TrEMBL record:
Name listed for the protein in its UniProt record: Uncharacterized protein
Key words, A-Z: Membrane, Transmembrane, Transmembrane helix
Record-annotated membrane-spanning stretches: 36-57, 66-84, 104-122
Tree of life domain: Bacteria
Amino acid sequence: MEQPADQVYSIPAPYRRMENMHILFWLLKDIGWCMIWKPLGISMIFPTLLIAVLITWRTRDIKAELAHNLAIVFWITANSYWMVSEFVGFDTVRVWGTITGKHLALLPFLTGLTILLYYYLVQKPQEHRATHGATL
């Protein structure tokens, strides 16, 4: 059911600290990627993804949060795969036709996008109709 517009969404302090730590890990991962510091970039994949999954699990009861946090999990997965493909050197290797190793990152990117499209095009309108009643 859709949340009323004036309803406050609050985050408990421990969850907020976890989200802030998530941002730190994500930035360190991307700095490692940007600077080609392979040990830093690769070592930050696990904590970044783990916290993203935990945040998703903890917000699973709020459909909007679930959709967006799932999209973030898939975004980090795609981003991490892309980084590793560059670090290991298979980003430009053709895997099928003109598709390279880097292009395979599109699978989790598109999965996250599909989740958001479903939420905005199907689920949210259904919630709105259920809350406000269908008009003829």
